Amino acid sequence: MPSNEAAYLSAKSTNPLEVKFAPYTPPGEKEIVVKNGAVAVNPVEWGKQVLGDLMFSWIKYPFVLGSDLAGEVVEVGKGVTRFKPGDRVLGHAVATAKPTGKALLVWGGSTSVGSNAIQLGVAAGYEVFTTASPKNFDYVKKLGASRVWDYHSDTAVHDIITALGEKQIVGAVAVGNGSIEKCIDIVAAAKGRKFVAQASVPWPETMPSSTMGTVALMFSFVWSNISVWLRSKLKRVETKFIFGSDLMVNEVSNVIYEDYLPAALADGKYLAAPDPQVVGKGLEHVQEALDLNMKGVSAKKLVVAL
Questions:
Q1: If 0-12 CB within 10 Å is exposed, 13-18 middle and 19+ buried, where does residue 256 land?
Q2: What is the model's pLDDT at position 204?
Q3: What does the longest C-alpha to C-alpha distance in the chain come to?
Q4: Do 290 and 297 meet the contact criterion of CB atoms below 8 Å apart?
Q5: Which of 284, 273, 291 is CA-nearest to residue 138?
Q6: How far apart are CA 2 and CA 71, in angstroms?
């Protein structure tokens, strides 16, 4: 069996992660085993580490965090025909459509989720409107956004509604604190589909360091959910919290990862964005990457090479 190790969250709220031996798991039917060459981190991972059993309470310890990876296939299971050992792959972590004349709003375009939502929206034939900090305006336009607004601006919501005019909107993707409320307001006022995909939760600027602070944070999460639910109902806008694993159970996964991305990446029509910021090499740097991600990053994806 190949040697294997992992960075474990060994118990509730343990810091740092514990790097140690991990048993090798052979692939089941229609599964593949990938030797990771690099992994990336996301806010949900340090969120679980900080909040412990207040988040994803069904998780049992020790547990290996993470979902974004790139590496090489080393073994395939029964029924796998698309991949073979030696293939380079990425994981969650169609030719370009004709313009539809419709618009998609991506609030938080310079984030990892936003960067990819912009490109996929453009590939689907939509005109993409987005928000970002002024320093990232050129970046999101390079990804294909046609219009961009400063999300700090007090008039951003009004300005986007005005810019949409009579254009039909297909919905919005909300990334970042306060984004879901703003997207609901914009979609409610625009013509077209009344739907917002929520891709993040409202994290505080600093995480609580006491039990009472953590309890207060959980109450704020609950109130935020109630507030968003009421807002969406009053404005007749459908909302849905989206997660990467959702792709496993619907048709979108095949369309993106099989039909579109391989050819688009090879042809240079799709950019691997945002640019990686390599924190270090080795699993012992995963905790450092989580800590940096908690402090906030802009137009970068924190990666640990292996």
A1: middle
A2: 76
A3: 61
A4: no
A5: 273
A6: 15
Block residue for tokens 């994981």: 91
Amino acid in position 136: N
The pLDDT assigned to 93 comes to 46
Name the DSSP letter for residue 285. Answer: G
Q: Which amino acid is at 110?
A: S
The pLDDT assigned to 96 comes to: 47
pLDDT of 254 reads 84
The whole-angstrom separation of Cα 154 and Cα 172 is 19
Nearest to 198 by CA among 229, 159, 219: 229
Contacts 24+ apart (CB under 8 A), 225-230: 227/181, 228/180, 228/181, 228/184, 228/198
**Residue 208, preceding bond cis, omega within 30 degrees?**
no
Q: In the structure encoding, which two tokens stand for residue 161, read together?
A: 């509604």
Q: What is the pLDDT of residues 236-274, one digit of tens each?
A: 999 999 887 777 777 788 888 888 898 889 888 899 999
For residue 143, what pLDDT is reported? 96
Q: What residues in the chain have per-residue pLDDT under 50?
A: 93-96
Kindly report the pTM of this predicted structure. Answer: 0.75
Report the C-alpha gap between 80 and 99 in whole angstroms.
Answer: 35
Dihedral of alpha carbons 113, 119, 120, 126, sign: positive
Residue 103's contacts (CB-CB under 8 Å, 6 or more residues apart) are 126, 127, 128, 129, 164, 167, 168, 169, 170, 192
SS3 helix, strand, coil % of the chain, rounded to 5? 35, 25, 40
